[in-house]
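Predicting holo structure, threonylcarbamoyladenylate bound.
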Amino acid sequence: MRRVIVDPEKPDGQVIFEAAEALRRGELVAFPTETVYGLGASALDADAVDRIYAAKGRPSYNPLIVHLAGAADAASVVASWPHTADALARRFWPGPLTMVLPKRGTVPNAVTAGLPSVGIRVPRHPVAQALLVAAGIPVAAPSANKSMQVSPTTGAHVEKSLTDVDGLILDGGHTPVGIESTVIDLTTEPPTLLRPGTISLPEIERVIGPLQVANASGGDEARRSPGMLDKHYAPRASVVLADAHDVGIRLEQARTATDRAGAIIIRADVQPGQAIIRLPADARAYAARLYSTLHALDDSGCAVIVIERVPEDPEWFGVRDRLERAAR
Ligand code: TXA
Ligand code: MG
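Done. Tokens:
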């Protein structure tokens, strides 16, 4: 892909115009959102959407999220707008929240993997906003990485993962949130949390009342959101989760098996070293750095990464979900 540097706060109008034109022609454009980089294509063009699946090597059963410039654009892709959607949009959009709603016939089946529902989100990153406004069309965009890999939080991560793909990367540097959006299915009663993110369960329940939580290990909810079962979000290295007081011993064990062991710690008392990275004890600050740390440890050749378990509190739910998947 061709990577163009853009100012993350005030992207160049000419670059945005050209990227928007490319999207309207059915081409692929990777762009930063506040969560991770997305690999975008026109959500109204089935051939363009097929190019996303081909570029990522993504299984066709895994539906895509449609990105909109504003909540008013939802009417072009969803068949209903319940009061729960309206309340969540007012509270959290633009921002890292995806809502699953009944889809309209205008959305090609390729976008939703044949499901009768569509996931929609209004991102708040200025580059994503500018691109969506300029394109004037809904943009389907999964994370801009090969299927099963750690999502990209920099333009360089996208370039590294999608080397063989034709298209443009708008490189706005590091994405601020760092893990994927919270996904809520509003077609169930009560609504279902399909994927935790940095907007926590209690924050959402304060707006729309109690939710059910999809069980990642199987069952009906998992079948409703097929991609959720995949072991993605995983680095190349194998991941071992350990309590703070076990990190040292786990690291020693890993080092007897390989000379390339790394660790991600919060509080653990271990000797600092080259591949031992301490992340903040605050959930949002940790999330913002998690994927770039996994990319960096992978790139430094680690075969094993020992990761200190994170707290059980609700604000850590999104991070904990990604770590458990990475360790699977
Ligand atoms: O933060 C994000 O959400 C990023 C940025 C680029 O917006 N996108 C992202 O997309 O993480 P992706 O494709 O990696 O994950 C989208 C997930 C799918 O795996 C699927 O499980 C769920 O959202 N999803 C999408 N549409 C759905 C639908 N109609 N029903 C149930 N789940 C859906
Ligand atoms: Mg993904």
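The pocket of threonylcarbamoyladenylate (ligand 1) is lined by residues 33, 35-36, 38, 62-65, 96, 98, 100, 112, 115, 117-119, 121, 141-143, 180-181, 183, 185, 194, 224-225, 227-228 (CB under 6 Å).
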